[in-house]
């Protein structure tokens, strides 16, 4: 069995039950004398629980056999207490249902329900991410903000280019919280689009050019999307009811690269992520700016990010993880390193980076 599973364990924990009532009843049969009883069990389970019942005085003993290189003594003590609590509850009320009981101590319940949920943290909930990014660009204009293969941009350059794109969107009539789709591969231009949509007050809708056309059209229709941004690398959709723009052309059309007056509020929609649709039609999850910023600061605090750190962006833009991969480093003055799709699909190249 071990050879066929290439060394993997079929299961790791065993609970052995012996019907002691039968054994005890046998001792009452006059024609049977129990001369001696010995139990020997040797297994490779990392945890084995054995109950022993002294049939003469009805005492129950629990023995836990465990691998010391897997469990600590503290963990085994805790497991032993759960078994003890189970026995106490069973003896106190044998007919009570298990879901009405808890094996946790009051201290453990407090830790799980209260201590672990003490996640409050200070973050600028009265502002939006793009405003914080602009502040960072002013503090460290020459620092590298984003890298993608052989291309890299400073905070100042990234801010100026996204300002031009945002102004171009405003001039083409983008409205507050208007859903704006972006269909292109992950790249620096995609980051341009995300920041520009935020600055223009719109709502970012990421779409993967590799997804089926039916899914793309379903999402565009369901989200009432009018504006669609893309690049030169893919064919432009032919729908006449949508305004389709190439990002580079929009940037070139606008000369003003100054910061825009704020066009979005923390309670406004920042982006919409659609589900896979595995249980039916794809559904859009709507995230506000304040919720997005809360998530970004949770990652910043969890990973202890500073201006010296780089965050690899390798997730597809249609997964929510891509948002913090794109933006968290830019919140603290670090670098976003975009690994394009073709690189992610080659594990050896990806790991060597």
Describe the structure.
With 353 residues, this protein is of the alpha/beta class. It folds into 2 domains: 13-117, no CATH class; 129-352, 3-Layer(aba) Sandwich (Rossmann fold), CATH 3.40.50.12780. The chain is built from 12 helices and 13 strands. It has helices at residues 20-27, 73-92, 106-113, 129-139, 155-171, 188-200, 213-222, 247-252, 289-303, 321-332, 341-344, 347-352; strands at 13-16, 47-54, 59-66, 144-148, 151-154, 179-183, 203-207, 227-230, 243-246, 269-274, 284-288, 310-313, 335-338. The strands form 4 sheets. The protein has a 4-stranded mixed sheet. Helix 4 (129-139) crosses helix 5 and helix 5 crosses helix 6 (188-200). The longest helix has 20 residues, at 73-92. It is elongated. The model is unreliable at 1-5 (pLDDT under 50).
What secondary-structure arrangement, pairings included, does this model have?
Layout: E1 13-16, H1 20-27, E2 47-54, E3 59-66, H2 73-92, H3 106-113, H4 129-139, E4 144-148, E5 151-154, H5 155-171, E6 179-183, H6 188-200, E7 203-207, H7 213-222, E8 227-230, E9 243-246, H8 247-252, E10 269-274, E11 284-288, H9 289-303, E12 310-313, H10 321-332, E13 335-338, H11 341-344, H12 347-352
Parallel strand pairs: 1-2, 4-13, 6-7, 6-8, 8-9, 12-13
Antiparallel strand pairs: 2-3, 4-5, 10-11
Describe, in short, the structure shown.
The protein has 353 residues and is α/β, with parallel strands linked by helices.
Please provide the count of β strands.
Answer: 13
- CATH third-level topology of the largest domain: Rossmann fold
- CATH hierarchy class name of the largest domain: Alpha Beta
Shape: elongated
